[in-house]
Amino acid sequence: MRANHYFEKREYDSAVLLYEKFLTVTDLLLTQKSIDNFQKKNIEAQIYTQIANIYTIKQEYSKAEFLYHKAVVLVDSLSDLKTEIYHNLGSLYFLQDRYEYATLYYLKTWINYSIEPIKNSGRMVDLLTSLGTVYSANGEHKKSLSCFHKVDSILLIPKNYDPLRLIALNINISEVLIKLDSIETALSHYRLASNAISTNLDSSNEFKISSEEGMAECYSRLGQTDSAIANLSNCLSLYTSGRTNNKHVVSRIYLFMGNVFARQKEWEKSIQYYNMALAAILPDSVDFNATNALISKYEPDLLDLYKIYGQLGRSLLSLALLDKVDDTLNLSHSFSNFLIALKICDHLSKDFGQGTSRITFHESTKTIMGGAIEAGFLLQERKNTQKYDALFSIADTNRNRVLLEDLEENRSLTLSGGSDSILKVIKVTKDEIVFYSRKYFQEETISGYSRNTKMLELQDKVIDLKLKLDSLRKKTCQSSSGSHIQGHKEQKAHPSQIMNCLKKDEAMLEYLCSDSILYLFLLRSEGLSMKRIVLSASFYPSLKECLHQLKAGETLNFTSISHVLYNSLITPIETELNGIHRLIIIPDEELSLFPFETLIRENPGVSSEMDACSWHYLLKDFEIIYHFSADAWIKGKEHTKLLKTNYSFAGFAPGFSNKNECPLPVNPIPYAPKEVKNIAGLFVRTSKHRPTFLDSSATEKNFRLYAPKNTHIHIATHSLISDGNPMNSALVFSENNQTGDQQDKNDGLLHLDEISNLHLEASLVVLSACATGEGKVTRTEGVLALTRGFYVAGASNVIYSLWNIPDHITGDFMLDFYRSYFSNSRYSTALREVKLKMISRPETSLPYMWAGIVLLGRE
Question: What is the pLDDT of residues 94-109, one digit of tens each?
Answer without folding.
Answer: 887 778 788 888 888 8
